[in-house]
Structure prediction request, 132 residues.
Amino acid sequence: MHPAAVCALALTLAAAASACAEPESHPAPAPHTSANSPTAPATSPVQLCFNLISYWAEQDLLDSRWAGLDWEQKGMSNQQYEIYDDIVHAARAERGRRGTAAAKELIRRESLRRCTDERGATHSSENWRPPS
Prediction:
């Protein structure tokens, strides 16, 4: 092999090895933030519960493609799923009596009431974690 080729190969291998080495232990610089930077407000357990239940209950009422997912796939706790199931049954009955708009209103009203009464309904499932 030509000496220049051997040198080029050695340099290439050395560069590749150093790229794969452990990074230096210097901390990364903190991202710049200013006092005027907007931050998303934390969502309360009650609001998360309301968002999940009202969304999925409406999807179920409208026979959406994703309505058949199970409670874990929908991100619900066991207790939230119980509330959801009660509300879906009530909304279907309401739709039969007064139409879809009335059923959607029932979903929003009852989701908010039940989630508020149960303080988010998150304590019944060891697998439940708030969305991150």
